[in-house]
TrEMBL record:
CDD domains: ABC_DR_subfamily_A. GO terms for molecular function: ABC-type transporter activity; ATP binding; ATP hydrolysis activity. Keywords: ATP-binding, Membrane, Nucleotide-binding, Transmembrane, Transmembrane helix. The lineage of its organism: Eukaryota, Metazoa, Chordata, Craniata, Vertebrata. It comes from Sphaeramia orbicularis. This is ABC transporter domain-containing protein.
């Protein structure tokens, strides 16, 4: 009887019907994999009231709040927030209508307090004047330090207050605060509650707040006790205490939990007992979705149908430049606050290309070769003439006796031994004059070469020099059609290396961007403020474009002016192709960043593709040398045709009318579009 009248009290205290509710959750279910966190949950937040959501750690409060603001999708049921489901086209939830303070601090550490508030002000479309006025109020109200203080230098409690300030900034109609009073001193805690009580008085603002300090929730108009993913009670705090004759809210909740445990154990142990209990107690055999205390959803409650015309839907999908600008400025401000890292990013490509130009493709120097010359030392002897042809900057000739030369090569002192017989000149002359000579003449008129072939690159230079001499004697090289006679390996490698450096630095710049922001709750916070996945992508693209533009300018200055790499073609085409490759790198980094949650895995993914891509793209060795099945793979990679295209522009002076040139641009643009769409879709699917 007592309980029956109490339920009536509760019903009178709570507004009924959807029209009066700020938030309605009906039969809401949400799981993480196999873990069911919200189970047929029903919750009603009355309009213009404070709703205290209480419950033990891990019961699903944060998950519920994320579903309410639309950053998590529910697997069943429906949620209405301020009249429409979250993320419904044209609805400003997520957006300006909701102020969300997540449990994580979700603040940019490199920002000052004023940067933080200006950033959120921009996203909410506040004017400069409005933002400044609200900032002054919040700094005073939340007792914050000077507005130019960096967030990373604030104490834990101060950071929480900045986070609360960001949620209150735009005077939202709905405030969702996940443990705003943790780490806040009792005086300020009281002040925050007083502020919440004041703002709901107008009847236009509704608040849902979670807290671990159960007693402070007595100031809420309604409290909801959550346990195991559903609500045990939903009623004004006084009603909850009265029902359990408790003097404190904490005590009342303890009793509710115990009643709930008793029911659960009875249900588990005996299905028969359940039937018996059903007729005796209002608690037993209870439908999980119905709270022990409070309003249960009306069985006849209808789910309204919502619709939006195509213009609203289109506007909802299209990116807002205001948000892109705010996010781009945010990234640039963060970069400015890390000058060391920015300088490193600008210098790294120059260091890399310089190392490639200096260390790859040059001629070997100072290779020690033992020379055993058994001919007389006359300068007219063929052996001495041949030896004088050897490039002495590459090969350092060490005249030795036969035994010393072989001892030296066995001890690793020399890379080879060149031997000339006693009668080398006369035998060689005979070989040249006579058509048929004996084996002895052939042998005596030959240069004998013994090599240590463990270092191929150096030793190949020795027979190459002889080969070269013969070639020079026998061949008449006309002027080359493309390139120069002095073309070396560095010239071949440089265009591909420039593209590859630009691509990988861009991957490195972006691969961690979402990973860290997601981990710190910054992505969620921005989404609740109304930023879309596409806007996040585009903003990252634009801000990173600034970095890669500086990198590309420095790279080009170095390769063209310092290392004198030839460029016969249009510099504009060269720049466009390199920038587009940088964009490919950024968009690939965004794919990694949106698909992977963990820094280590994101780093591994970025590093893992580096080497195979470098080898397969024909950057350090021509594609024509790659075995066939792998060659097909090579051709679809983003840098294979692009490197070829850049070489054609720079060394052949070709333009876009040539297939080998436009093909590189087309493939690069194709990859850019694919990666950007993929990253946006992944990011959207993962919220
Ligand atoms: N991203 C996630 N992936 C898998 N499980 C998760 C994830 N987020 C939360 N959970 C699990 O869901 C359950 C509810 O978590 P939630 O953060 O909603 O609890 P809570 O009531 O807010 O806890 P607290 O008061 O400690 O913040 C926990 O068991 C948690 O481990």
């Amino acid at each position: 009887m007592k309980e029956g009248s109490m339920t009536a009290d509760v019903e009178a205290a709570l507004p009924a019907g959807q029209g009066d509710s700020a938030i309605l959750c009906r039969d809401v279910c949400r799981s993480y994999g196999k873990l069911r966190v919200l189970s047929n949950l029903n919750l009603t937040v009355p309009q213009g009231q404070i709703y205290g959501l209480l419950g033990p750690s891990g019961c699903g409060k944060t998950t519920l709040l994320k579903c309410i603001v639309g950053t998590l999708k529910i697997s069943r049921g429906h949620i209405t927030v301020l009249g429409k489901p979250p993320a419904f086209p044209g609805h400003e939830i997520p957006g300006r209508m909701v102020g969300y303070m997540p449990q994580d601090l979700a603040l940019y550490n490199e920002f000052t307090i004023s940067d933080t508030l200006i950033f959120f002000g921009r996203i909410h479309g506040l004017s400069w004047k409005e933002t400044q006025a609200r900032m002054d109020f919040l700094i005073d109200f939340l007792d914050l330090p000077q507005k130019h203080s960096l967030v990373r230098n604030l104490s834990g409690g101060q950071r929480r207050r900045v986070s609360l300030g960001a949620a209150l900034l735009q005077n939202p109609e709905l405030l969702i605060l996940d443990e705003p009073t943790v780490g806040v001193d009792p005086v300020l805690r009281a002040k925050i509650w007083q502020h919440l009580v004041e703002i709901v008085k107008t009847g236009k603002v509704s608040v849902i707040i979670t807290t671990h300090y159960i007693e402070e929730a007595r100031q809420a108009n309604v409290v909801g006790l959550m346990r195991n993913g559903h609500l045990l009670a939903e009623a004004p705090p006084e009603a909850v205490m009265k029902l359990h004759s408790a003097t404190t809210l904490e005590h009342a909740f303890l009793q509710l939990c115990q009643s709930s445990d008793r029911i659960d154990s009875k249900q588990d142990s005996s299905p028969r007992a359940l039937v018996l209990e059903n007729s005796q107690s209002f608690e037993s055999g209870r439908d999980e979705s119905r709270p022990i205390l409070g309003l249960a959803p009306e069985p006849t409650e209808e789910i309204p149908k919502y619709s939006a015309d195509w213009k609203v839907r289109a506007r909802h999908v299209l990116p807002k430049w205001r948000n892109i600008a705010a996010l781009t400025v945010k990234t640039l401000v963060r970069m400015k606050r890390m000058p060391g890292s920015l300088c490193f990013q600008f210098l790294l490509p120059v260091i890399q290309i310089s190392l490639i130009c200096l260390c790859v493709g040059g001629d070997p120097k100072g290779i020690q070769v033992a020379v055993v010359n058994n001919e007389t030392s006359s300068s007219s002897s063929f052996s001495n003439k041949l030896l004088s042809f050897l490039d002495n900057s590459s090969v350092q000739q060490v005249p030795l006796s036969h035994s010393d030369a072989f001892d030296g090569i066995y001890n690793g002192e020399y890379w080879g031994v060149l031997g000339f017989g006693k009668n080398f000149t006369s035998y060689l002359t005979k070989r040249m004059i006579e058509r048929q000579v004996s084996r002895e003449v052939v042998d005596g008129g030959s240069v004998h070469v013994w090599l240590d072939l463990t270092s191929k690159i150096q030793i190949h230079e020795i027979p190459w020099d002889f080969f070269h001499i013969v070639l020079e004697l026998m061949t008449c090289f006309e002027e080359p059609i493309y390139g120069s006679k002095n073309t070396d390996f560095t010239t071949f490698v440089t265009p591909g290396a420039v593209l590859s450096i630009t691509f990988y630095l861009a991957v490195g710049l972006t691969a961690l961007s979402f990973v860290l922001e997601r981990k710190e709750g910054l992505l969620d916070r921005c989404w609740v403020a109304g930023v879309s996945s596409l806007e996040t992508m585009l903003a990252h693209l634009f801000s990173q474009l600034f970095v890669i533009s500086v990198q590309i300018i420095m790279l080009l200055l170095f390769i063209l002016l310092v290392f004198k790499t030839p460029n016969e073609g249009s510099l504009v085409l060269v720049i466009i192709l390199i920038v587009l490759q940088g964009v490919t790198g950024i968009s690939f980094g965004l794919v990694i960043s949106s698909a992977i949650d963990d820094e280590q895995n994101a780093n591994q993914a970025a590093l893992g593709i580096f080497y195979p891509n470098l080898i397969l793209s024909g950057i350090i060795w021509p594609v024509e040398c790659i075995p066939y099945p792998l060659r097909y793979l090579s051709l679809i990679l983003p840098q294979t045709y692009a490197s070829e295209s850049l070489r054609c522009i720079m060394y052949r002076g070709w333009g876009l009318s040539r297939m080998m040139v436009w093909r590189g641009f087309a493939v690069t643009l194709g990859w850019n579009t694919f990666f950007l769409i993929l990253a946006t879709v992944i990011l959207k699917l993962r919220t």
